[in-house]
Amino acid sequence: MSNHWTHLTPHLAIFHGPGNTGVLHDGSRAVLIDAGDGAVVPYLAELGVKTVAMALFTHHHRDTAGAAEILAGGGTGVVVPAGERQWFEEVTAFWNDPAYRWHLYNYRPSHLMLTAPVRVDRALADGDTLDWGPARITALATPGHTDGGMSYIVEVDGHRVSFSGDLLYDAGQCWELHSLQKGVVTDWDYHGFLGAREAWSASLRRVLTEQPDCLAPSHGRLMADPPTAVRLTEERLSAIYANYLAASTVRSYFPQSFPHPADALPIHPELLRVLETMPRHPDGRVFHGPWGGVLKPDTVRRVLIDAVLTPLKDKFPGQPGFRNFTHGRLHSFRHFFCSKCATDGVPEQVVMRWLGHTSSRMVQHYYHLHDEESQRQMNKLTSVGGPITAS
Q1: How far apart are CA 109 and CA 91, in angstroms?
Q2: How far apart are CA 245 and CA 258, in angstroms?
Q3: Which among 348, 372, 342 is positioned nearest to 361, based on CA atoms?
Q4: pLDDT bucket at 273, cuts 50 / 70 / 90
Q5: Can you give the residue ranges of every domain in the chain?
Q6: Is the dihedral of CA 298, 304, 307, 313 positive or negative?
């Protein structure tokens, strides 16, 4: 047996060549996932494989699907994402269209296309499943690296492995950034740098909800801790994008579409320590909504009123004519935070940026209160040598 293999289960192996190819094998038959340039084919005999029944591809890029034509010609069934089908069967139209020759700022599609059309035997839609031998394969639409990209969750021998194409290379790393270029504001300029990052991030989090034991990229290293791999890569990509915005004039032209990264409120170290002790869900989040989805602001508001403020009404009834706990809302915490910042001497411009204010008028209200507090503290001081009197 050559050193090209990583055996994940008795029926699932990864071939490491110019890229990674998943090989689901059962006796003398096999299914390939992202066969790349076909380098895996001569080595299949080492697994006892004589026939490739199907070849699945996560996306249409030539470095991942270059062997599709040869495999199809040998009788292998070609299975592709439904959203990418045209770039397999009708790729000649791409090469013959002058619109795709220059100014491909969006990289959708890029020039990394197949050189000849390939017969497609089946196009999988989101949620489709394939039962083959001892395994079940579930297709997940995971756009990002390409618009129609797909991940395959392979369940076999009690394990779950995600083949997610080139969404990731390794923990904290992408295969390349060019494919995340996507126009956000217009299609005629460069303002689409990392424009597909939100779709990319959502796709990775969706993969995590499947709770895979391992992430197997088309290029890169196998990842045995998927949540950590995704979190680290998201953090680094966010830092890259923030750095880009800091140096780009795009924010001057489109300030509403490209907010300053400093608009995000940093986490206080004490709160961060608390959050780090809390368990994360498989998708990497700490908090979920009541049905397991993303926690929405309105859900937080209703929980605050029903589970916190209303029960405190009787315990702290307040004075007649004054507001009490039942009048509290999420915005009350914003007011308190602003007052606390003013009292603790946080610069006004910093608070403006944290709160997203473009004018200092609202913030100055809190700093006026701060001035009154400052005067009260001054009034408590006694002068050296006794009271001050006019001579």
Answers
A1: 11
A2: 8
A3: 348
A4: confident
A5: 5-259
A6: negative
CB-side exposure of 340: number of CA atoms within 13 Å? 6
Token pair of 359, please? 């004018």
Q: Which two tokens stand for residue 112?
A: 């990394």
Query: Which residue spans within the chain are E strands per DSSP?
Result: 5-9, 12-16, 20-26, 29-33, 51-56, 77-81, 122-124, 129-132, 135-141, 150-156, 159-163, 214-216
Interhelix angle 361-379/330-343, nearest 10 degrees: 50
pLDDT (tens digit, 9 = 90+) per residue, 148-190?
A: 999 999 999 999 999 999 999 999 999 998 888 887 544 445 5
Q: Residue 73: exposed, middle, or buried by beta-carbon count in 10 A (0-12, 13-18, 19+)?
A: exposed
Model confidence at 222, pLDDT cuts 50, 70, 90, reads very high
Residues 6 or more apart whose Cβ sits within 8 Å of residue 252: none
Task: Decide the pairing of beta strands 12-16 and 5-9.
Answer: antiparallel
For the record, the structure tokens of 197 come out as 């990052």
Residue 389 CB burial class (10 angstroms; 0-12, 13-18, ≥19): exposed
Structural tokens at position 221? 């290293």
Q: Are strands 29-33 and 12-16 parallel, antiparallel or unpaired?
A: unpaired
**Domain over 5-259 is classified CATH 3.60.15.10:** yes
* Of 87-91, 276-280, 354-358, the least confident: 354-358
